[in-house]
Amino acid sequence: MKMMKNLHNPFIELEGAVNVRDLGNYLTTENRVIKPHRLIRGAALNAVTDYDKVMIHDTLNIRRVVDFRTLAEISELPNQKIEGVEDIHIAVMTDLGHGASLEDIIAEVAKAPESNDYLLNINRRLVTDESAQTGYRAFMHDLLATPDTATYWHCAAGKDRTGFEQH
Predict the structure, then answer these.
(1) If 26 and its partner were Cys, which of 3, 20, 39, 167 is the partner (CB 3.0–4.6 Å)?
(2) pLDDT tens sequence across 102-115
(3) Contact 161/136 with Cβ under 8 angstroms?
(4) pTM to 2 decimals?
(5) What distance, in Å, lies between the first and last C-alpha atoms of the chain?
(6) 122 touches 95 (CB < 8 A)
């Protein structure tokens, strides 16, 4: 199912999280529309405000947060607890020989002779590594098992580990 276009503005403004977007209302090549307010991706929730917590629970009706970050990233910047929202960790990235925080990755890219090769390798591993396949499979099974529950999933910045977009 290739997504063609979004029928609304997908971005959701939170004070303490970036790159938050609703994947609902995308029109697929089969002319179906993805259910809105069900699949929401973004960055980590370590800096959310009280306003954000109300928005996440009451307005967006999110009841599950799936964290794709490594255990090192989570211990460094843990998600804030949100009343009535379950926090689930699903590992999709194994040790890269250094931390997997955004700062660590930027540092590795800066010293790599071919930084594009380094980033391509990370993206390749997010598809081919057994840990990634196992983690994403568990995530998809969880989504299918909770059809009436809004889910927010994230990594550090809401980019690579939360999904790829084909252009």
Answers:
(1) 3
(2) 566 566 556 665 66
(3) no
(4) 0.78
(5) 13
(6) no
